Amino acid sequence: YISDVTPPSDRAAAYGSALATLGLSFTVGPPVGALLSKRVGDRRVFLVALAIALFDTFLVYGVLPESLPPARRQRPTKMWDPRRTFQLLEKDLYLRRVAGVVLCYYSGVWALVTTLVVYAVRVFGLSTVQVGYLLSLYGLCTMVAESVIVRYAVPFLGELPTARLGLLAFAAQCCIVAGATSPEPLFASVALSLVSNLVYPALSALVARRAEATEVGEALGALNGVKALTEGVGPLGFGLVMVEFERTALPGLPYLACAALALLAWALSHRLPDLQKEEDEGDEELVGLLAADDGGVAAEDAAA
């Protein structure tokens, strides 16, 4: 939807704004849910969530206008075929390489996110209130990174350099968590998520720039499919590793594996051409050619 209503130069910021709502909900949702459970009981919290979801559905159908004009809409197929996603990745080398970066990066991200609270409680003995502060801090940093910082980082650095910087920041964050001997470094490491949260908006903007206008939604859907796959694979594999190291002298050592995945994603990102740079160079070359043509015409006029 964003790619349909936003020019390519503004898409990274637009994706960041959309993803920033995740950080806002991650900051507000848990304390509100806890308050409701105390006031109205645990079961009614789910009824409130259901009401919110139904209201959201009403907004989509009743308020949000369709982004595509009738001429650009594709006819719906009778059945969604999951093989189309793999076919799209197979035929597009660029998208396949971006998917490799997403696979490595988000395998580490979900491994860290889904186990950090358990790790903080069982190793450092954080209280419920401290855990709430840690989660809210993560949500706040996500919101700031994807709604504010991305608007300045991508235009200044470019989409691909921004993504690479975010991958290095996440690797550093995992190393801090791995070497922590007290709770304080866990809270300090959250500051690096201000940079690491720039990765996905930048990559989404790259894909939107690369894909044809009629295939942007499908390309981003394929990328999100890879991201969703990591939500299961990352925590499952990493949880087993964390249990093995939990009672050792270095319980945080498995988080170095998350850092290694981020560095692998960073290395893979260097196989991606910088589309924005190529477009800018192409524009400069075109301007030069036009200037040369204008100069030649002026010289002919003067000779005449």
Question: If you had to describe this structure to a student in words, what would you say it looks like?
Answer:
- The chain has 304 residues and is an all-alpha fold.
- Helices cover 80% and strands 0% of the residues.
- It is built from 13 helices and no strands.
- Helix 5 packs antiparallel against helix 12.
- The longest helix is centred in the middle third of the chain and has 32 residues.
- It is globular.
- It starts with a helix and ends with a helix.
- About 2% of the residues have low confidence.
Would you spell out the secondary-structure blueprint of this structure?
Layout: H1 2-5, H2 11-40, H3 42-62, H4 83-91, H5 93-124, H6 128-157, H7 159-179, H8 183-189, H9 193-196, H10 199-210, H11 216-245, H12 255-269, H13 275-303
Summarize the structure.
By secondary structure, the protein is an all-alpha fold. About 80% of the residues lie in helices and about 0% in strands. It is built from 13 helices and no strands.
Oligomer: single chain
What is the chain-wise order of helices and strands? HHHHHHHHHHHHH
Helix content: over 70%
**Model regions low in confidence, pLDDT < 50 over at least 5 residues:** 282-287
Average predicted local confidence, pLDDT: 79
Q: N-to-C terminal Cα separation, in Å?
A: 55 Å
How many beta strands in the DSSP annotation? 0
